[in-house]
Request: fold
Amino acid sequence: DTEVTQTPKHLVMGMTNKKSLKCEQHMGHRAMYWYKQKAKKPPELMFVYSYEKLSINESVPSRFSPECPNSSLLNLHLHALQPEDSALYLCASSQDALYTDTQYFGPGTRLTVL
Amino acid sequence: GQQVMQIPQYQHVQEGEDFTTYCNSSTTLSNIQWYKQRPGGHPVFLIQLVKSGEVKKQKRLTFQFGEAKKNSSLHITATQTTDVGTYFCAGSRGNEKLTFGTGTRLTIIP
Reply:
């Protein structure tokens, strides 16, 4: 199984809402990532978890809060977002948090903030 | 910080023509990866290159890593409609994060 799953596929939320994005992988990977991708742009790294610990936070605003409940799951909690946060949010995983490792991406959650 | 540029930004080719995208880094890389993202899809890993001057082939796709490990290319021979998408290179230097290139969007004219 080389699949990374993400839910929901689409999400529309107001600026005062609280919502969560979920990501799951069953490949035994020890590193998981959150990326943000705007239209016609490359993915931008947000967070990296390695062995369930947050290892990288790319200066992401606190309205995005990641969580790694166990080695297979990764959440991204959203609160008080801005319209400019609308984007495709991609989860990825790799064997380890080595940047030579292949990253497997999930299908993404397309987020619209009204 | 590390910058990875790709040219061209867009490429429209007639089906059956060849296509090449070039990836250039501002710094020497330890490895380069290539990903393909179909319209409405997510990035899918294609290949990784780690050695200076390395050339790898996957059917109609040929990947090269430059001698100085600062540039790379992806060449597709005889494009097909299934090749449509955006091709990203992504490089890292040592223990630094993977930096994605700006991408080349390929469209095919049937």
